[in-house]
Amino acid sequence: MKVLVVGGGPAGMSAALHACELGAQVTLLEADQVGGTSLNRGPAPVRTLARAARLARDWGSWTRFGLEGAPPVPNLAALQGNAARVARYAHERKHLAEHLRASGIDLVEGTGVVRFADDHAIQADDGHVWTADRVIIAVGGRAAALPVPGGELASTYDDLLTLKALPEHAVIIGGADTGCQIASILGDFGIRVTVFEATPALLASADPDVSAGMRSAFEARGLTIHTGTLVERLEKHASRITVTYRGPNGSDRVIGDAVFAAIGWPANIETLGLERAGVAAGRGGLVVDEYLRTNVEHIFAAGDVTGHYKLVQTARSEGRIAGRNAVLGPVQRADYEIIPTGSFTDPEYGQVGLTEPAAALNGEVVSAVARYDDLVRPVVDGRPDGFCKLLVDRSHRSVVGAHVLGEYSAEIVQVAAAMMAAGMTIEQIAGLSYAFPTVTEAIGMAAQNICRQLDLGGFPQVWSELDVSQEKTARLP
User: Fold this and answer.
1) Longest dimension (CA), the chain
2) SS3 of 252, please?
3) DSSP bridge partners of 366
4) What is the rounded CA–CA span in Å between residue 349 and residue 341?
5) Secondary structure letter of residue 372 according to DSSP
6) 288-316: per-residue pLDDT in tens?
7) Are 386 and 404 in contact (CB under 8 A)?
């Protein structure tokens, strides 16, 4: 069987490798260089900038630890050079292209734009045509353009790596995951930041406690946050950009040195010639069934192009499933129940499963919060602000959601995700021994709190929970 994979990001590479392992003859087409946005332009290099921003932030706590010295000064060219080094790492040290070819995959990089010639054939602009029995579309997505007058003046996530100078005042349009990460990086570098979000809450898809906590943390650092606010136009004045917006208190404007738009991530499907193959597209991307088949039975899709969850971990999973189903037929369904996510913002946040409002729609939920300042490790590290929140279905005593705000959030959420995947009950989680002193102890503390609420297992309060002062009971969440 011949399988043709279009797109060499995480989804496409996973699909190609899995189909090849199952005995298919696989060709992988990549418009530029394998690795996709996640390695070449997105999460890996940009999170390297975020790491530098975090180090710059940490100088503020030096005196608390008895350290003296001047604060570090960001060198933009060096920062971008280090981010580029990380982007090259996967190619120079991990030898991605060589690994794919050594696995038996016919890898074709630098194809440029390709499109369907018919439902079994893909054609490049130079006239080259590839044919296959099965096709897997994994062409990813891109930052959405800002649909207002002057929207072309706005930069995107990718442009962080090509800035010529750090701005004095940056305006971020979009307060979801990407917008908050841009705001956090620039804020840690000492830049004045203003964020506009159209919905009523920052991080609208997050648990309300995480959303509120992130806003409080941003504002405490001096970032200006406008929610329930629409940007109406951008205008260039000399080297600066005027942003006109309309919020709960009417219209106003703000002037920035740089504007970044982070309002969505549409699928790269406009140039695919879908009509020649008869493939249907919806608002979020290609329409697929639970087996990741499009409406054309032998054409599959995986990754951002499906519009499901635009995450590297989801793309890899969908790639494996699409590769398997393309070769063996519809044997495995895509499962999105347990998808841990984390963001390298300041503070970090992570989540898995349902938010508390969503969980409450499915039945009675018991929740508990373990505060970071009740743990030794965050206090030792000088980062005691944060919390771990668990949500448990009362009838089944299973964890249906975990939400963390603070240091090491993504790692804590990954532990919670493993517990959920293993089907552990809350009393089993509460009874585990956790390494001391670690931030992961927060999971055990929250689990024991829930067990006390449910009268399960006789878990007493531990010493770190015995502070019942008015100040503590008034804290959020």
Assistant:
1) 74
2) strand
3) 392
4) 8
5) G
6) 999 999 999 999 999 999 988 888 899 99
7) yes
Q: From CA 11, how far away is CA 191, in angstroms rounded? A: 35
Q: How many CB atoms lie within 10 A of CB 56?
A: 18
From the list 53, 96, 44, 42, the residue with the least C-alpha distance to 75 is: 53
The DSSP-derived string for 261-315 is E-S---BS-TTS-HHHHT--B-SSSB---TTSB-SSTTEEE-GGGG-S--SHHHH
Angle at 212 between CA 313 and CA 168, to 5 degrees: 85
The helix (run of H) or strand (run of E) holding residue 368 is strand 365-371
Buried b (16+ CB within 10 A) or exposed e, 2-15: bbbbbbbbbbbbbb
pLDDT digits 0-9 by tens, 202-255: 999 999 999 999 999 999 999 999 999 999 999 999 889 999 999 999 999 999
**Rg of the Cα atoms in the chain:** 24
CB 246 within 8 A of CB 230: yes
What is residue 176's three-state secondary structure? coil
Identify the CA nearest to 322 among candidates 35, 115, 82, 17. 17
CA-to-CA dists, residue 280 to 53, 75, 231, 289, 299, angstroms = 43, 48, 32, 12, 11
H-type helices in 108-189, by residue range?
Answer: 177-188
